[in-house]
Amino acid sequence: MAEIGKDIEKAKQLLEERDLVAIPTETVYGLAGNALDAEAVALIFETKNRPSFDPLILHTSSIERVEDFVESFPEKLKMLAENFWPGPLTLLLPRKPIVPDLVTSGLDRVAVRVPKHPLTLALLESLDFPLAAPSANPFGYISPTAPAHVAAQLGEKIPYILDGGACEVGLESTIVGLEEDEIVVYRLGGLEVSEIEKIVGPVIIKDHSSSNPQAPGLLESHYAPRKPFILGDLRQLIAENIEAKSNFAVLSYSDYFPGILPGNQIALSPNKNLHEAAKNLFAAMRKLDEGNSAVILAELMPEVGLGRAINDRLRRAAVK
Ligand code: TXA
Ligand code: MG
Fold this sequence. Notes:
Its main location: cytoplasm. By secondary structure, this protein is of the alpha/beta class.
């Protein structure tokens, strides 16, 4: 079983020995290995049970260090990096040959980000290589936002979980790249589109519903609980499920519904704060998935700000 602790030196030693370590970030926990060592990267895919056509994000500690791994850093993207790193933003940049094919799944761009977490930044500073880190969950399941989430699913397979507490943002990073000088958002995430637009003007959003060869990993069914996850109007869904005598749980934005056991319902933010809802989302989905209900009934958030990224995750959880 993985040890859980705050020992950066221990994490560093394991990573230098080609082992994997779960690391905290502000978005979700990552399953990290030496990004420049194809064997360590292969172990990440194997441990997560992830198909090799789904490329990984390279994590480093500063804009300056990014230059070691990319051929160029277009001005518009650099402005975003300067404004939002460290933070929940991933940039797609032309890769240098030093980045193994396995990291990018053979694509000519590499995804890079500087995460915002003091422990992980200190770890990255101390290493002389960047870390490849997908979310630290088995492929297709809900991303982990606390050390216990990682331990529950990957604890048998990895030696160490660096304990940075609960993730502040709770949604994966927003993925951005350039297509013919236009800024394109490939994955909605913890950095709001409106924040990006304040710096670079209007952007194009290519979400998972459009066919998207640039991000083959953005598969439709993702972030999925094991139980049926049904999205719709909660009052109606609850009435139908009571009628059918089904054993259900409820995931709402802010409301609690009468007559449902407290353990079977979670409101993501009783005060209707989308940041709070984002932070609570994945832990709530896990808790209800582990509970004794047969199905989870859920509703969409307002389609504004972080609500768009939350709704993207909810819709994917509902795809079966
Ligand atoms: O917040 C995050 O981004 C977290 C933390 C750990 O940093 N990481 C994360 O990694 O969410 P992962 O592997 O679960 O999701 C990364 C996504 C994949 O769906 C993949 O398709 C896309 O990034 N991606 C990675 N490299 C890419 C590339 N070269 N071109 C296009 N898409 C890429
Ligand atoms: Mg993931």
